[in-house]
Write a structure and sequence with these properties.
Keywords: Membrane, Transmembrane, Transmembrane helix
Shape: globular
Distance between the termini: 51 Å
Largest sheet: 3 strands, parallel
Strand order of the largest sheet: 4-3-7
Length: 156
Amino acid sequence: MIFSYFDSINFFIIVLNAAMLCWPVPNVLYVVGYALDRFAEGLWALQLVHQNRVGLVLDAAIEGELRLCHLQVADATRASLGLPVLEYIVTDTPLLVEKWVDPKSGQSTGRVKHPDSLPRAVQTLVNRTKVNAVAVVGCFLMKMLKTWMIIDKGWV
């Protein structure tokens, strides 16, 4: 395997086959894209962490059935991979995440209209459960998803 030729390899998790999470390779570091960019720019260093205590923050805009789906995924990662997702919290107000694509460049960008809710949720998780890593699930596709569901079910 190519991984054996290197001391360590940094991967952005989306480009990595999710099946590899079931059989982790010790010298492969899974890094989120923003952190990988800062590392490549020489602005950040990466530190090997054997296992974080993970908290999950769910956007208050995520509705019942979809929220349940995300919680089931978190349960599945605990059961199948042993990931320590300790607790979840719902933001006290919807984050109102907006996303769009620049028609000229094709670049995807966005913004969070209510970002203040996010640090409050994270602080609550840190105080209550002593997490040292946080996964955030924001809601920005709800209208598109609802539209697709209506068309798919022939309700239009």
